[in-house]
Design the sequence.
């Protein structure tokens, strides 16, 4: 692991790091915020998955997570959203290729050699964090994210309740199997046969698996991507399953990080309480 930068922030350390990923076959960059409480003991951690076009830096710089993380004594991990590099496959569209990994393991050409974000998050990066940041208590992990990252947070949590003990999301893609933000990418990465898409749809996972605790979701009602996010499908699934969930439509809020930063303190408090 290479340290790219470390900066004092709310008496903790905001660091940016890189490493050679055997899973993705390229150098990957990620960020970790260590709160001041990590100087004297182990701390829980929130994994943050960002959305389309983002790198590790977007949420690190715009979400306002560090103030609340320092208050609650939580570390925050900001992975990248995809592999990157001149030899990594890409697409001219903003919603496919580099910056749009969708947190799945690609099986189709030309994506399969590098686009292995599910295994990277759940395996290699998790192992690296445990080794390099022993102050983080990996038995107390929450996960959250925005948009595509909200899809990632929900699907990774619902399929890995042994690894994640709390989950929330901001404007998540809730029903990608029935949305142009999902069908396009899953067809490209996993093939045109929907049977091969697996457990990659949060609304379907709620019905088939459910979740052991509360799920927290915030969505702006002025979001210009509402038709793609399919929040209603998630609400219907929770109602049918009897799933405990707090899904709030926020009047006047859009899809931006102004929306995310407004409600980030509430999400950090939610995870802090769940990870005690």
Sequence:
């Amino acid at each position: 692991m290479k340290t790219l930068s470390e900066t004092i922030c709310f008496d903790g350390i905001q660091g940016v790091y890189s490493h050679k990923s055997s899973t993705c076959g390229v150098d990957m960059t990620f960020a970790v915020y260590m709160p001041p409480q990590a100087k004297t003991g182990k701390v829980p951690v929130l994994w943050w998955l960002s959305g389309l076009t983002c790198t590790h830096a977007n949420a690190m710089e715009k979400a306002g997570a560090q103030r609340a993380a320092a208050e609650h004594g939580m570390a925050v991990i900001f992975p990248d959203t995809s592999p990157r590099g001149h030899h990594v496959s890409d697409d001219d569209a903003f919603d496919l290729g580099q910056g749009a990994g969708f947190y799945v393991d690609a099986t189709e050409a030309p994506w399969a050699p590098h686009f292995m974000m599910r295994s990277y998050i759940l395996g290699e990066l998790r192992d690296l964090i445990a080794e390099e940041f022993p102050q983080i208590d990996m038995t107390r992990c929450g996960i959250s994210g925005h948009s595509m990252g909200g899809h990632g947070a929900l699907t990774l949590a619902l399929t890995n309740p042994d690894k994640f003990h709390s989950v929330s999301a901001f404007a998540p893609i809730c029903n990608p199997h029935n949305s142009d933000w999902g069908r396009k990418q899953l067809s490209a990465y996993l093939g045109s046969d929907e049977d091969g898409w697996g457990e990659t749809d949060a609304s379907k996972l709620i019905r088939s698996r459910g979740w052991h605790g509360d799920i927290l979701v915030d969505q702006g009602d002025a979001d210009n991507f509402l038709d793609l996010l399919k929040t209603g499908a998630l609400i219907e699934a929770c109602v049918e399953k009897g799933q405990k969930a707090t899904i709030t439509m926020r009047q006047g809020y859009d899809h931006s990080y102004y929306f995310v930063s407004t409600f980030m303190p509430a999400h950090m408090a939610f995870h802090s309480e769940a990870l005690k």
